[in-house]
Amino acid sequence: MTAPDLDSLYRHHVRRVSTWARRLGGPTLDVEDAVQEVFLIACRRYAEFEPGAKITTWLFRITSNVVRHQWRRRRFRHLVSPKAEAPPSVEGPVERLAQAEAESRLYLALESVRPLHREALILFELDEKSGEEIAELLGITVASVWTRLHRGRNELLSAVRRLEAREARSQSRKERRR
Amino acid sequence: MQRLRETYTGTETLEGRVAFLLRATPAPAPLSSVAVERMATVLPLAPKARPSSRMLSWPINLLLTVSLALASSVALHRVQPSRLPVAPAPVAQPTIVEDPVTSTSTALGSPTSVAPTAPPPSGASSAPSSHIRVKARSAPEPEEAALLRRILELAKSPRGANQALDAIADYRRRFPAGTLGREADLAEVRADVALDRRREAIETLDQLLSLSDPPRAAALSLLRGELLAKQDRCTEALASWSALAVQSSGENERLLHGRASCLATLGRWSESQAVYRAYLKAFPQGRFAGDARVALSGWDEQVDE
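ok -> structure tokens follow
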């Protein structure tokens, strides 16, 4: 592939990739860092891209792997230094603060959802993609998308239930101390 | 299937509360033009060719062992020519690949000890036997062989793997067109695996397998698939294993187990079940027989996709 081709690949897909990265990675992801890594890999491995394949499927797969990798690194850093990765502070209206809190809670719960299911769930529930669009992006059948969504949804509900139970326990401990 | 965010209102039920979180999550802000341009300046949008030394193709253990043995002998010959019982060092040095390779848990098991051997006669390259292939390569410098020997020693253990990677970088800087460049790359795969740097190991293996007719491609494809599976990239792992003709019983055992667990991960239960049964039939006392029995016993609870 020539330099102009790579340049047009980048310019044509960079915003799409940044949206995927942000959606998959949540509020604490360094989106620019992730997008840069996605295109570094894409540039390096473009020779392996099969001409008949879908470029968006290929790029989505790279994005998903990069985000997963960053997620793991972030979780590790969080274990080492829990305060280092707090979500960015939100200044301004109360609504924005509520939005940020809801988003943080959602992504905290999503961490418990298996990666394969999480991707499908995010694309369906947050990005409002159709089953066919998700199947194309993930390179799987529509039937598999529905299965992943079904399982992902159950995992998310369980994760939120656990999160709420944990918060309730923490709240009651605080009240007892008072 | 309806979206949760559209189906549930109110926060009395768990579904309603999850739907609220989904609705409240804002759409991502678009990337600014400034950021797009800033990244464009950093990215290598003009592709760079990888050095030819990275185009690897040989089974790692045996190649490293044999090449190093040959390298040692040439280095020794250069330093002390009078001690060698053979005629002057040949211009071209052969790389010998034997079949089959004994596999351990992965294709990157510990290398056997490296013993110096005398270089074969110059006519060897023109008359390969049925199980030995000989390829002409120029002789390495003694320092090059010594450095690679150190790399291999370091790459053997997870503790030394980081140092091995540093040493490989040093090797590439000092010998950009080194004769043992391929072996350095193979050592890099070994070090990456030891350090659990699966993505990097896969990239190097991709380079290995990108050759038109890589020898022992089955062992490398098997390893590549296993690394992909460990990264939850089961679809790719299965593709890597498709139509794979492994040559040893150990490899076949790993292949069957890998296929079965990947199929289960993807929810293809009936296929996974069939592969697990095939595994138990072939390896009733195998390393993964316990896993297979546990998986088969819990199948009634699963639903097929």
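Chain A touches chain B through 58 residues (CB under 8 Å).
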